[in-house]
Amino acid sequence: MKITLEVEVPKGTTVSEIQGAVKRAFDPCWMAEWWHTDDVIEQAESNGEQLTEDEALWILQMMDKNHDCNIGHTWDSMDHWIDRVIQNREKAA
Fold first, then answer.
1. Could you tell me the CA-to-CA distances from 54 to 15, 36, 61, 68, 75 in Å, in that order?
2. How far is residue 57's CA from residue 81's CA, in Å, rounded to a whole number?
3. In angstroms, what CA-CA distances link 33 with 25, 52, 65?
4. Torsion angle (degrees, nearest 10) of CA 89, 35, 6, 3
5. In tens digits, what is the pLDDT along the chain, a chain of 93 residues?
6. CA distance 21 to 32
7. Beta-carbon contacts of residue 81 (< 8 Å; ≥ 6 apart)
8. Domain locations in the chain?
């Protein structure tokens, strides 16, 4: 079977990054956690905060870059990064 996918990738993404992502998405030997910026925005809203799409994306990037492999990505770690965004806003104001 052959399937053709059309995917929009962020500017600056390398071919090897795309190949790695595709392999992880379809290879049954990989397990993945899937988070979306909507998850981050909804979590912030449940705590009475509003985030932009860019802020939510930054939070996902920070969660991925700084997670503890012993506990993985959690709602608590997401809350930590949401709090950091809010604190940085307050400092900038």
1. 23, 12, 11, 23, 19
2. 11
3. 10, 22, 14
4. 180
5. 888 878 788 889 899 988 888 887 888 887 777 899 999 999 999 999 999 999 999 999 999 899 888 988 899 999 999 999 999 998 998
6. 11
7. 58, 59, 62, 63
8. 33-92
